[in-house]
Amino acid sequence: MEFEIIEIFNRSVTIEVDSGSKYKSKNPFKVYINGELRAEKKENVVSISSLTPDTVYLISIEDAAKNVCEKSFRTLEESVLLDVSKFGAVGDGNFDDTAPIQAAILACPSKGTVYLPRGNYLSRPIFLKSNITLYLDDDAVITGFPEREKYPILPGMLQRTDESDEYNIATWEGNPLSAFASLITGIDIHDVDIIGGGSIDGNAANGDWWINPKVKRGAWRPNTVFFCKCRNIRMQNILVTNSPGWTVHPYYSDHMKFMNIVIENPYNSPNTDGFDPESCTDVSLIGSRISVGDDCVAIKSGKFYMSRYHFKRTKGITIRNCFFERGHGSVTIGSEMACGVDGVTVSNCVFKGTDRGIRLKTRRGRGKRGIIDNLRFENIEMSDVMMPLTVNMFYYCDPDGHSDYVQDQERYPVDDRTPKIGTITVKDISCTGTNASFACCYGLPEQPIEGLEFTNVNVSFLPENELHPVCPIMMDNFPELMGKSFFLKNVKKVILNNVNIEGSIEEAEFINTSVIGEVSYEDRKQQAG
Known about the structure:
This protein is mainly β. It has 3 helices and 44 strands. The longest helix has 10 residues, at 98-107.
C-alpha cells in the first residue's frame, strides 16, 4: 500500500494512503514509527502525534497482505515548549483558564509551542499570534464559557484613521457586521499550527446561542474557530464541537490546510455549518469528518457590499478523502458568493444521510462578480442523500428573498447585480437511497447555467413505497419532487456520458436546456432520456 507524507509538524505528522477506496480502505492497515506500532486504521488519512521536534523518523505502513511501504522524515524545529499549567492554568473545568493560556501565547517566542496537557480548560475567547504552535494533548479540551457576556465584541467595519480605507475584523453571513469573538480567534496572523488530538468545545448547548439564532443580541453569534486575514495556517487532528454558529471559519485568508479534523454539532443546532472558507485562496480539507445541523462544508465569498468594496474571490479549494453526514448539504457553494468561487475539487469522499450532496445556491443581487466556475466532483459515494445535486439561482435568503426581483421566473435584464454559474463536472459518482431527485438545477432565464457534465454516474432510488415528496431547492413556487431523475431548466449545455438511473418514477424534465447524450434507465416506469 503506497502512501505520501502530506504534512510535517514539530511534534506530529500526517500521511495519506492510496487504498483504492473512498475515505477509508476496506481492510485495516498498521502504522509504525521507528518499528513501534502507533496506529491501526482504515481511514486513508492518518495523523501521528507525540513526536519529538527536529528528529528523523522512519514511518512504515503494513497492509493486510503484509506488504510494507516506508519513508523517512524529520520533524520541524521547536524553540521552546510552554506548558500552560506553569502559567497558572488549572484545567478542572471550573477555573477560568483564559488568562494563563493567553499569557503563554503572548510569552511564546517564534517557533515555540504552547502546550495544554490533559484537562478541561474553561475559557473565554483566546487570541492567537504568529509563528507558534498550539498543541492540545489527546485528553485536553478547551471549553467555552456559556455566557455571552464573557465574549468580547469584534466590530464589523471600521474606518482607518487616515480615511484611506475600511478595516474589517468581523462578519455575519456575508456582511461586515459586529460579532462576538470566537473561542479560538486569529486576526492577521501567519504561520500557526494547531495540533495534538485534543478538542475545542464551543459549549453552545449550555448557553443561549441557539435560542432565536437570527436575533442580534449585542452582536451576532460567534464561530468556534475564526481566522481573519491569516495565512499559512494548519490544523491537524482536532475535534471542534458544539459551536454557537459556523464552526470553523477561514475568512479573507490564504494557504490553509485542515487535516484529520472532526466537526460535530447536534443535528438540530441552527446554522452550525461545519467548515466555511469565505473569500479565501488555496484551502485544503483532507481526511476529515463532519456531522452538523446545517451544511457540512459551505464555500462562500460574501455579499454585494464586500464584492463592491473588498473584492476577494474564493479560489483553489481542495476537499479530499472526507466523510460528511447529516446536515442540509455535504458540500455547498453559496449563497454568499458575490466575489465568486473559482476552482473547487472534491474527490474520494463519502456523503451519508445529508439532505443534499452537492449544493449550489445563489440569487439575483449577488452581482456580476459572483461567478461560480470550474467545479469538479469525482469519485464520490453518496448513500441516503435525498437530493445528490441541486443548483438553485432563486435561493430565497435575505430580507428581500421572497421579493419579485429575486423570485420572478421571467427574464430580467443582465446587469451589475446578476450572478453567473459556469461549468460543473460530475464524474465517477454512485448514489444509493436517492429520494426526491438526482439532479435539480434551475438557472436564471437571463443567465442560464453554462454547463453540466455527467460521466460514469450510477443512481438508485429508494423503493417506491419508501419515497416521499420533498422540495429539493429553496425557491418560491417550486413543486415537491419524488423519484425524479432530472429536473434541469435554463442550462446552456448538458453532457451525459454513461449515466445510469434505477428506480425513478417521474419523467425527467429538460426545459430550455440543450442535452448531448442520454440516460440509461432501469425503472419501474420506462422513460425516454
